[in-house]
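This section describes the prediction task in plain terms. A model, or a person checking by hand, is given the sequence of a single protein chain and must write out its three-dimensional structure as a string of tokens. No templates, partner chains or ligands are provided. The sample shown here is typical of the held-out split.
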Amino acid sequence: MACKPAEPVPAATIYLAICALATVLACLVVVDARSDWRTPASIIVLMGSYYVSMPLAIVIHEFGHALAGLMVGHRIYLIQLGYGRSLKTFRLGHARVVVGWRQSGGHVVGFPLGAERRWRESVFVAGGAAANLLASVVLFYWAVRFGVWYASLALQCLGLACAGAGMANLFMAGRALWPGSPVTDGTSRANDGRLLLNLWRQPAPGPGLGRLAWQGYALLRERRWSRAEAHFESVLAQYPDNMTFRGPLIHIIEQSRGPAAAFAYYREHRSQFENSTGEVDTAWAYAWGNTAWVALHEITPDTVSLADRFSALALAADPSSPPIRATRGAVLMAMDRREEGRQMLLIGLRDLDDPPFKVDLCRYLAKDAKAHGQAEEFQAYRALADHLQATSPPLR
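The expected answer:
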């Protein structure tokens, strides 16, 4: 029986191995400053601080993106620190900061308030790696300083901790700048290096694309459905493949003309919702989540299957998003996984800041409670939906 040929090692794996080796060599240079650091206990402290400092390196990286974006005139709307189940969500200015329990990466969502320029986008994208590199330089400096100038055991341990944290930041910068697509939560998300390459390979961005996006989002949040629909339709006429505009349009049509009209729009543009590149972002997650929600209202085997596929893709692409978690929960409830789905829906509903969608979710829960003979829950959710409807701004 012939042996199976060995599969080639991916280039990203080789690059990450080189980054790891480079960080170890850099740390050995620091350790060489003191002979008594070359002991098993010191190496344990060093490597322990490296792993403990990795979440801190992620925080530095993502806030580096946010600060760089603010410096070049971006408005930051989301800072994601880690993936998986959300541990904490809070507001920081205009940005929603989400802390996930799995500290395997993160991302920042921001758009320029003025005209788009390549150099501005480049500064925004490269800001995370630049922050990590700056942090590693500072940390290695303090590691050498504590190691050479001080004899105190506590300060020597602090020096080792600084060296480990410097290693973590150096590795984080190298991993971010590699032009690959690291796998995160089952999806392939383009990293900073790939984004920079794409940014300079593509034609110059259209004037004010980010501003057009957030003009549309402002109309959406104010529930100016007719104006918002016209706005997104006009932008999509120029940028038909841009999911930043396709996803919100599904939601707008569903709110203004009903789920059937929104699902008909999906059928008309079905090919636009299939990702052939393998690289996803929050715009794709939003589009898939909205499509899953409108498909759920058709209640046929085909549409429930479509809702299941799209809601799973959306959750994998943006696992901390409250509307996506709520949508996935509703889909699970429709697939006879009621308790699991109900818990996920309630968690998403709790963190949601979209009043119209809150109304829809409460009505969905009321309908489910009525179907299962839970009269008190039915009355409670219906009353909450009526209250949210009464306190929401009117349709315009």
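For orientation: The radius of gyration is 24 Å.
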